[in-house]
Fold this protein.
Amino acid sequence: MKKTEPHIHKPEKAAQTPAPATEPAATDLPVAAELAPEQLEDLKARAARADEHWDRLLRTAADLENFKKRAARERTEAAHSASAALIQKLLPILDHFEMAQAAARTADVARQPGSAPLDENGSRVKAADDKLASLQAGVAMIQQQLKNVLAESGLEEIDASGKPFDPSWHEAVSQQETADVPEGHVVLQLRKGYKLRDRLLRPAVVIVAKKPAASV
């Protein structure tokens, strides 16, 4: 008969719990109390140099920004000066247009009725008058085109007629006694003045009013 072996109870292995992870050892950092006097002096010197370099960087950045602004302003002023020099050369052309228009108006007024030439039938022809009118219109158109171009560039007329005399914009060549215009005002403008934006190119040449002398 087969002999049964006695059952032996074997204890179960206890569950192994992982050992708590050990934290890395904190690095030993020097504290102020542990710094040697030489180290403190070295840190102070480095901090002073860092402050000096930062201030130098700020000054350099400010100087660069100022240089950019100054360069842009100088470019603008150079462009305006070039424009002013060119426009000043064109002002006599405007004067000549004004004189041509005035001469044409004077010729129209001076022409007597019936002065037009006769044709073969004895009637007055208007061809000469029509040609003169076309010429006047063409001159006026060219004058206005030139004025428009110069106005787009910033040119402005200084119209002093009837206005108080201003030495900043006007040039007085004489005085005229009159009771029609207040004293110190412009009686007659002999030549127009011009300015380019706020810059005077040419003053207006004027005659200024003064009170009439008291009659004796």
Summary: The helical segments are 37-110, 127-152. The chain is about 45% helix and 15% strand.
